[in-house]
Amino acid sequence: MTLPIELQNIFLHRQKSYKMVLILVLIDEMRATREREVSMTRIKERFLEYFQKREARSMPVDAPPSRIAFRWADMPVKRVQYVVDTPIDALSSILDYPSSGYTIGFKPELYSQLNPAVLDELYHYTLDELDTYYAPPQSDFSLREDLLNIIGNYLLAKQQPLTGHPLAKYVRKEIPQHLRSLPFVHNHFKVQGSVGSGSNWATIPWIAVMYPQLTDTIQRGVYVAYLFSADMKRLYLTLNQGLNEVRSHLGRSESQTYLQERARVIREKLPAGRMKLSDDIDLGDGRLGDDYQTSTIAYFAYDTERLPDNEQLVTDLWDAMDSYMFYIESTAITLNTVWTTQVQEDDGGDVYTPRLRDRDVSGVLEQVHEHIAGNGFYFPEQLTYNFYLSLKTRPFVILAGISGTGKTRLVRLFAEAVGATAENGQFTLIPVRPDWSDPAELIGYRDLSGMFQPGPLTLVIREASRPENRKKPYFVCLDEMNLARVEHYFSDMMSLLETQKWRQESEHLYSSPERWQEYVYSDGQEHAYSDGSEYMQKHKDGNVDAGGRSYPGRTDYGVDATVHTDADTKRSERVQPEPVNGQNAAERSDLTAGKHGHVADDEYRLVDGHDDHWDGAESRSRSDWENKSPTRMNKDGSGYPGNMEEETEQDSIHMRSRSANTTSGHNGVSHSSKISNSDRIPNNNTISNISRAPSGRASNSEGPFGNSNSANGNNVDSVWQQQSSATKGERRIVTDPLIAAGMLQLEEDRVMYGHLGIPDNVYIVGTVNMDETTYPFSKRVLDRANTIEFHHIDLMQLPDDAADHAQSVEVVPVEQGFLRSDYLQLKDAIGEYRELVVRTTERLVQVNAVLESIHAHVGYRIRDAVCFYAVYNERFGLMSEEEAFDLQLLQKILPRIQGSQMAVRRALVRLLEWCLKGNVRVPSPLEDDENFWDSWETGNTPPEADYPDSARKLVYMIRRLDEDGFTSYWVH
Q: What's the pTM value of the predicted model, to 2 decimals?
């Protein structure tokens, strides 16, 4: 090799192909321009084009970072910078990348050695490295042996407990890994095996291959599956359909008819092949077997006593996957066109939030773990999973341990890894002071002038509540949380967390305090927001007057008639707004009348589940006002010119809804189509229609703003019904107001803070030490948080060489749904995961039976939280079910136990025996049995346990009680 020494080892450390592709496209661009420094824009375009071409040809290719896009075809060029930053940093010793970021090239001293021959050698060296990197994984497993393992051992295994059985682990873990090593499966498909759930073996085990954009469960969609007959005498490789979701909508009889007809349609689309296009399979087991038969589209059948050789089985699977891909393409869903990514950008265009699927969560957490390690801090991978699941279960977590174990650093680095930093305002560290005795230091107080002074937590909540920030996670770290009594200064927050509920809401333009003030407080009168929209103004008697201008998306009396739908009751409630400044529409017509003609939209609004129809008058041509420059209103009432490109997203939605939802009628009058029952929930283009009032309805009530000097807050209630709105009809978690009404005397404070609740994108983490300077926690606090203890310390865990982290992990913001709770009540989760919830609850019942004797048993709040944790863990595939319950026992149950009575010791001993496997006896305090206790020391082998972490903690608590006469969870 004649390459310069600097170039000979540039690919020695590689995690992905990014470095190699960057060198290739850099050389291509240098050859095209004959320049040392080339355009960074062209490099990004070439870089993206390379991956898109490989992807389009179904060639092996590295997936893009999952937090940016799931496929290269969906990646915009401007996001490529996030990807190329990593290889540029890794190649910084050879690349010249000015801080301006406009150009890139080899360093001058290296470029002088790159004659055409050397450059050509570097190019081919890079291609060889890519070929080696992309070489398909070696499939050294035998599919035949995997299938025979199930066939030969399943009936015997069913006579044994399912939990922890080797065959169950083999089907769930090993076989999916084997199938993913096949080139035609690889990274494009989800592979899942099942032998049952909980303690129940399945009558018909299965192994499924699913295309995630069609389905990630066999309950719905189309997938490929191996189905084993109940007697293990027959095996079928099928192209099949999900049954349960269809049945839940249509019932058993109609769903069978639907699936049979759908199978017939799909068979007609499939090309001729070796698969039998029929549902003539026999799995036995009566109804369940019949259900699988009904949903079968095509199949290969095997007699398990005469199973074909491995090569034939792999060929059959390949043929089945070809048929599956043909179906996928026939539905216009290909590897490159339909993905679940959603981009949400604010005015700056910098916020990217793809929606993560359950199967992607573990990959994101792996990147989080690598990011933390890359910064020189090393925590067990299980701790990362545990911290994430705890935040997902409830947005309040306590990290406990001795000083200097990295509690605060974990919070900061975890937040940073998901895009929340102190620099962008999404991470806030609040040091707790010993003299805090009430919520004022956190939430705020009213000063002597009557003005409300917000605390640091209120400022974070206010920022996180802005519409443009609702997709971003905000982390608050309460450092040294128990230097003061938590129950004193944090009680309001704990109470508010108990008021969480789901709300389905439509978006309002003025959903932040500043936007309200911009329009409300302008010389004490209302001003028009002239974006070109017009409205029909009602008189008190219900007659429609012409031409007045209003705020976009608002009714003539000042505020949207927004429809809030309670997610639990499904009841629609209209928030009735009021006339502005006590004036009715007729009295205000001189303020808002313009020179424009009528607008003819048929408007609808939902009131208690019904739609009302409003026929408009003659339409004015949109072209008359679309070219006008809008006048934006300042707080002092003055205006400044704008242009139509400066419209907010909501403005555009409002105007698009006028054109998209109307058709031309007689005499130039536009009419919107009737809203069917299925259209009652507003979408992006119908928000303004739903929020307009019908003719003939008048309101004589007090205005939303009333007298600006009024001390009552009725107007604020109406205003903030709008502020609490979520974006575009999303389902959000809301709470009661954070600040008591009596704290807010000034009208401006009531508008700014009056209905400010805890948004669902704020996560609070407290770090605590337990020593003589701190306070213990009450059960009221422990019930509401997961308490993660940092107690295992390995001082020999030293940082690796810097070279091991030459390629740092990219940090890209994740979608808020990655962290936000999906469940608030057990009924939200129990549907699909009933068996898991039942098993978890049964364990808690056994624990409660022990704790009841010392009045430490748990209630429904802890039951729900433990079940949620278990469900999330099951969904994301992070730990085993036993490991997850072990952590919940350690974090939610054991911290509640303390005391000096013998009854406490008996309860601890019974719990320890319950955690251990077999009939292990725990010595009494009078017995001299050091062997048992010494076995728990570091380096020794303790008795085998179902829940080892909890067992170790219980041993510590028992020994402390025996030696000190008192015990608690905390290490002092």
A: 0.50
